[in-house]
Amino acid sequence: MVLTYKQGYLSPQPFLIRDITSRFPPPLSFSLKLQGQPKLRSIVKMSATEVTNPTISYESFAVKPPLHPTYDLKGIIKLALAEDAGDLGDITCLATIPFDMEVEAYFLAKEDGIVAGIALAEMIFNEVDPSLKVEWSKKDGDFVHKGLQFGKVHGRAHNIVVAERVVLNFMQRMSGIATLTKAMANAASPAYILETRKTAPCLRLLDKWAVLIWWRT
């Protein structure tokens, strides 16, 4: 059984700079592959807001998030998870998938582009269920080709589904910003393009982080 999720976008009209047309943003697909019989294991409560792990350090990030007194990365994660699933979980998953079933889910690039949001994705998975095992073949700022499998997560299906929509929503937005920023900066060279406070409400931290991911890599 394969469940594939796709994300749509509201984007501005395509722009033309020096005869270079840029597309925004590179979508990613996320597939859940249910394998074998469900495995018995200790149960982790499926809550989007309750489980936390304070051991994550920014020092391990390929590109650290920008700092400002008003920025609250943990708060953004908790708010997004609570908005999407709260403490109820995914109702379709609850109705169709055994509670203790384990799965592997893969990150697949649907277009060429710069991937951003990997460090944030790890924080989100860890927030929902610290026992989830996440592996990446790329890091923030790396270029990915269409069709490339660049990451996977293994663990309880119910907890993966709680996290995956928020993970994809953030990663797709950040990857689109990083990719489009590179295209605009290359087109405008030797002039410089400055990022400003004209960002989506409550998402300034993530939008500016995506720009930094492109610039510092």
UniProtKB/TrEMBL annotation:
Keywords: Glycosyltransferase, Pyridine nucleotide biosynthesis, Transferase. Residues 90-175 form the Quinolinate phosphoribosyl transferase N-terminal domain. Its EC number is 2.4.2.19. Pathway: Cofactor biosynthesis; NAD(+) biosynthesis; nicotinate D-ribonucleotide from quinolinate: step 1/1. GO terms for biological process: NAD+ biosynthetic process. The keyword Lipid biosynthesis does not apply. One of its GO terms (molecular function) is nicotinate-nucleotide diphosphorylase (carboxylating) activity. The keyword Iron does not apply. Residues 177-213 form the Quinolinate phosphoribosyl transferase C-terminal domain. Pfam families: QRPTase_C, QRPTase_N. Belongs to the NadC/ModD family. This is nicotinate-nucleotide diphosphorylase (carboxylating).
